[in-house]
Amino acid sequence: MSSEAFVTLATTDGYALGALVVAQSLRKVGTQRSLVVMISNNLSDLIKQTLETSFDEVVVVEELNSYDNENLTLLSRPELGVTFTKINCWLLEKYSKCVFLDADVLVLRDIDDLFEREEFSAAPDAGWPDCFNSGVFVYRPSKETFRKLVQFASQQDASFDGGDQGLLNNFFSDWRTSDISRHLPFIYNVTSNTFYSYVPAVKRFRNDIRLVHFAGALKPWQLTYNPQNGKLSGNLEGQHDIQKEFLLHWWKIMYERVWPQLSKNNQQSQQNK
Amino acid sequence: MSSEAFVTLATTDGYALGALVVAQSLRKVGTQRSLVVMISNNLSDLIKQTLETSFDEVVVVEELNSYDNENLTLLSRPELGVTFTKINCWLLEKYSKCVFLDADVLVLRDIDDLFEREEFSAAPDAGWPDCFNSGVFVYRPSKETFRKLVQFASQQDASFDGGDQGLLNNFFSDWRTSDISRHLPFIYNVTSNTFYSYVPAVKRFRNDIRLVHFAGALKPWQLTYNPQNGKLSGNLEGQHDIQKEFLLHWWKIMYERVWPQLSKNNQQSQQNK
Ligand SMILES: O=c1ccn([C@@H]2O[C@H](COP(=O)(O)OP(=O)(O)O)[C@@H](O)[C@H]2O)c(=O)[nH]1
Ligand SMILES: O=c1ccn([C@@H]2O[C@H](COP(=O)(O)OP(=O)(O)O)[C@@H](O)[C@H]2O)c(=O)[nH]1
Ligand SMILES: [Mn+2]
Ligand SMILES: [Mn+2]
Questions:
Q1: Which of A176, A100, A104, A86 minimizes the C-alpha distance to A138?
Q2: Which biological process annotations from GO are given for this protein (chains A, B) (predicted)?
Q3: Residue A166 near chain B (CB below 8 Å)
Q4: Whole-prediction pTM value?
Q5: Domains of chain B by range and CATH?
Q6: Whole-angstrom distance, CA of residue A35 vs CA of residue A7
Q7: At residue A66, what are phi and psi to the nearest 5 degrees?
Q8: Is A201 in contact with B127 (Cβ distance < 8 A)?
Q9: Which is deepest, B56, B139, B236, B258, by most CB within 10 Å?
Q10: If 0-12 CB within 10 Å is exposed, 13-18 middle and 19+ buried, where does residue B129 land?
């Protein structure tokens, strides 16, 4: 096991499906790092068991919450308060350096070179680019930093959006101005909104994209995939073609690499009954 | 006259109305710099005359064009080929340093501190934030740079979007990695797409915004303003409330500071007939 790790988080079965695809997409591109998932106690047994076979380590953490409904309403995302739970990742001190990945990302190409970066590195957010997007970041586990973050999070208006992104941007507030090497290239965290706003750039840099991030309300696991015709159905209205291709890519990994494990574990648990 | 200047561009009467608002919004916040507008020969006499009373200098330039229809179709903006004309701004060698502003921006607060920056400084684009947005940038006029840019622009695929933004990003290609001081804060060039993608950040930084940029297909001068009830009409569907407020702000300057000049010039030209 490497002393460096990719870390993700899942507090629901839906996000856990995402985490399973994160793990498989990392294995597919041949990562040399350990894979860690933080979970809360809400997951079904089957999902939990499958996480255990896919990740090197499963860590149960306590849920933290911002309870900031005003700002979460602005985002139309009441579920994001629980993303404060993310800061538990600083407790993983047995790793010297980590890359946190949201459970709604898909790795397309090798990203192990992220470990050459230092805390705190993240890519600009394609909404307000003076903020970083908190779906992908490089950090150093440290109980001390965790303690400071919890203290910070307990203050009023700790997060300007009610989620972890507003919190971490307030905490690592010198990201914008201090050191350009802490700015990850956007190709390490290409968020879905990009596909509407600047298509020529997406086409230009398409083959450089290392990771896509299904940020926003529509998550891949909310769609339905038909393996017979290779088509997706569900709330796909208004989604850009490039976005649809990435969603399909996500589902191919789900179908080819995650489902077999889920059904194997399911059969075993049936037999054990 | 200052040896430093704000420079804008208008090749049509519509964009020229924008340029007039740019000038008045800069005067309103008390700029100490010269105001320069580059125009082509398509403008009506009344507009041209009014530009002459609002700007310190009006420079007639030759239109350049990318004729890159494939990429401009991706943007749904066939009119953007002519934005190559922008690079004429490097010819203004009588100024030691300049800030280029698109004609579709509105200055809300003093931005003279931009002249402390060096060529080439620009703010990240909120669509693909590893590119800069070319609506606001700091540069040093130089015939030599102009010559290089024209040569560069004449190559195939000089611009990945068919407009000046793709061209300038290809030319100043080390902007992303070389020097963080060349990254202008986003508050100096807040583009319209932001208002849909990350509202909590907009609210958080609202009072810091120095300049809004009506980038995209809807331009303020395409709307209608009713001074009786202070309301806007036109194709406003789907526009965010904050965006509407800025559009209204643009129209107040148009109504209070530009129209009086236009009608005065109009009366005088009627009398001279
Ligand atoms: O109910 C939730 C919501 C979020 N998350 C975790 O927090 C991350 C951030 O939330 P999300 O990706 O939905 O935010 P977005 O990227 O859409 O802003 C997710 O990827 C998950 O890792 C979770 O485990 N349970
Ligand atoms: O027909 C045109 C199109 C553009 N422009 C100039 O080029 C700039 C860039 O175009 P625009 O602002 O429409 O591009 P956007 O910011 O929407 O990408 C404008 O602000 C004007 O200064 C012009 O003079 N005539
Ligand atoms: Mn996410
Ligand atoms: Mn513009």
A1: A100
A2: glycogen biosynthetic process
A3: yes
A4: 0.94
A5: 4-188 (3.90.550.10)
A6: 6
A7: -85, -25
A8: yes
A9: B139
A10: buried
